Amino acid sequence: MGFFDRFSAKKPAATPRASEPAPVPVSEPSPEKPAAAGGVLPQLAAARAKLVAKDLPAAMAIYEGVLAAAGDRADILLTASADLGTNGYVRELVELIAPRYDAERHGPGPGLNLLQAYLAVRQPEAAQHLLDLLFSLNRAELEERLIGFSRAIAEMSVADAAAPDVAPEEGRISLVSISKPVWFYGLESHADRLLPRAEGRQRRLAFAQCALLGEQNLMERATKPEDVVGRFTRGLALWLADTFSASAGYEAIAGIGTFAPKHFALFPVEWTADNIRQLNESVEGGLDYVVTTALRNRNADYELVARIWEVKKFRELKTFTARWTPANADEALGQFHQQLRTYMEWKPRAEGDGLAYTAPATPLPYILALGGSLGLFLSEKEVIPADHAVNSAEIFLKAAQTNPADARAQLALVTAIPRLRTRGANVDDAALTHARTWLASDAAKSAGVGEIVL
């Protein structure tokens, strides 16, 4: 296990920020309207190069000089805000653009960039004021997008009202990176048969813990033993990372939130470009793609939104939506899983290159089992309290029974049993019998784990 050390903030703003539902992180300058002419354009190019090189002070000095001479030009504000946002410097974007921006004179482009920056740094009041100015422009083509911003601001305001100020130490969010399938931990001696070989350039892909939109008392719920919904938010990221770890050409990880003092985090708002930048900078070598998800529950009607982000340009590539009720959850999740694999060009690894992949027939029990596996693993590492993890084999047995052809679901049960025993939990006969029967099967021998004794 690796740790994404440790993103923190000076206040609860470390919680991933609300994202606007039509989230191209920044507006790019139009090719028909270059950023500036004459001596200004080379200066803007130089500032952009400084940002890419992470020399922020030098870039800001250039911007200050250019804007002092030509700050009324909308194309310059647009270019500067786009470059700062694209490189993840949203706080600096606010500091530079907000004192200079005038909606009537500069138009909506810089304003949209500034509006998203306000959301990223959790300033809903400033965002609402700017949103009102943008609505006053009466631009029909912007209406749908501005309505999306309005919803995001409202959700942020509700979330902030539900989370009173806490001490800086208590408000610190950390991310745990799970770089291997969570069912693998405990089977390290079988790595040569279970894990794929890392050969050549792999596309690096991260799946962020699912956000919960419109839920109540998330801060309080996060301090208690995990519930089914919280387990789902973590298990979903683990399932998708597990899936793409088994794909040729990909190296996948899951990013899971924890809160100080030690317990899991629940995220009330979606991730934005600033969070993605932080995540990217925490990974050696950086990431190519990040997938964020958000779940909303309305009277047991669930809606899941997944966004695929290209990290290099901090832009959204694709959005997928899945809807289900308890009666058809497995069907809907299976379709969502297939759509994501198709779009990302998932393809199986060569035979013998890691454990062969089989998509679960009933995804929901498997997702919950993976979330439970993570709880057991992290409680063992003292990242979360022992009493916050599951204390029986029930969810692991259900996942294994409902996915008999999926070796991963069986291994989740196999690795859970020793951890439950270590905790002093009672592992019932049904779970032991199922696990032992599978370990004696040809499928377990083919996977290279048939000699394990429980």
Compute the number of strand runs. Answer: 9
Unreliable stretches (pLDDT < 50, length at least 5) are: 1-37, 162-171
Fraction in helix: 40-55%
Q: Whole-Å distance between the termini?
A: 24 Å
The main pleated sheet reads as:
9 strands, mixed
Number of domains: 2
Tell me what the structure shows.
With 454 residues, this protein is α/β, with parallel strands linked by helices. It has two domains: 17-162, Serine Threonine Protein Phosphatase 5, Tetratricopeptide repeat, CATH 1.25.40; 173-447, no CATH class. It has helices spanning 40-52, 56-70, 74-86, 90-97, 103-106, 108-120, 124-135, 143-162, 191-194, 218-222, 228-245, 273-281, 329-343, 363-380, 394-402, 407-422, 429-439, 442-447; strands at 2-4, 173-178, 203-208, 211-213, 250-259, 263-264, 289-298, 301-310, 315-324. Helix 15 (394-402) runs antiparallel to helix 16 (407-422). The longest helix is centred in the middle third of the chain and has 20 residues, at 143-162. The two termini are 24 Å apart.
Would you kindly provide a brief summary of this structure?
The chain is of the alpha/beta class and 454 residues long.
List keywords for this structure.
454 residues, alpha/beta, Serine Threonine Protein Phosphatase 5, Tetratricopeptide repeat, 2 domains, 9-stranded mixed sheet, elongated, disordered N terminus
